[in-house]
Amino acid sequence: MMIRQAEEQDAEKFAKLILEVENTSNYMLFGPGERTFNPEAQRRMIQAFKADNHSNIFLAEAENELIGYLIARGGSASRNQHTAYLVIGIMQSHRGSGVGTKLFEELFAWTDNIKIHRLELTVVTENKAGLGLYKKMGFEIEGTKKDSLLVDGNYINEYYMSKII
Q1: In the Cβ-directed half-sphere of 67, how many Cα atoms lie within 13 Å?
Q2: Contacts with 78 (C-beta within 8 Å, 6 or more apart), sequence order
Q3: What's the pLDDT tens digit per position in 55-104?
Q4: pLDDT score of 40
């Protein structure tokens, strides 16, 4: 497995990966079938992130197939450029195999070279695997976003988590 930064030529595979992750998880913002396949949107995102030295997209690749991603969106105002909001997704067939840990390790190496001081994310409170990974990687729960998402007619809570680097 290799972890690397996204390039424009990854747009189509990246778009497919995002759909695969969303279609096999109840813990993502978009549920199965809510997002349409749009490689051009992913291409624009990759371009924008490459132009912003506070944002990045990391991809996990195995046998020429994308199996996971970690998106770090840096703050856009002078007062929050030291922060990055994270979204991670891993193909169902590779969850629990160390892909998330490797993605975070690459993220932490990247933050050493730029002025990111705070990483933040949200996680559905019932997502025990995700919560375990984030705690293992040094994130702490700051609070609970009550009734944050509506999934299958039920309101669910999310934890707001952060890590100070």
Answers
A1: 20
A2: none
A3: 999 999 999 999 999 999 999 899 999 999 999 999 999 999 999 999 99
A4: 92
Distance between CA atoms of 57 and 165, rounded to whole angstroms?
Answer: 19
Range of the domain at 44: 2-164
* CATH of residue 102: 3.40.630.30
Q: How confident is the model at residue 134 (pLDDT cuts 50, 70, 90)?
A: very high
- 20 sits in which H/E element: helix 11-23
Q: For 63, which DSSP code?
A: T
The total number of structural domains in the chain stands at 1
Cα–Cα distances (Å) from 162 to 14, 47, 57, 64, in that order, read: 26, 26, 18, 32
Which single residue is written with the structure tokens 């892909």? 99
From CA 140, how far away is CA 87, in angstroms rounded? Answer: 16
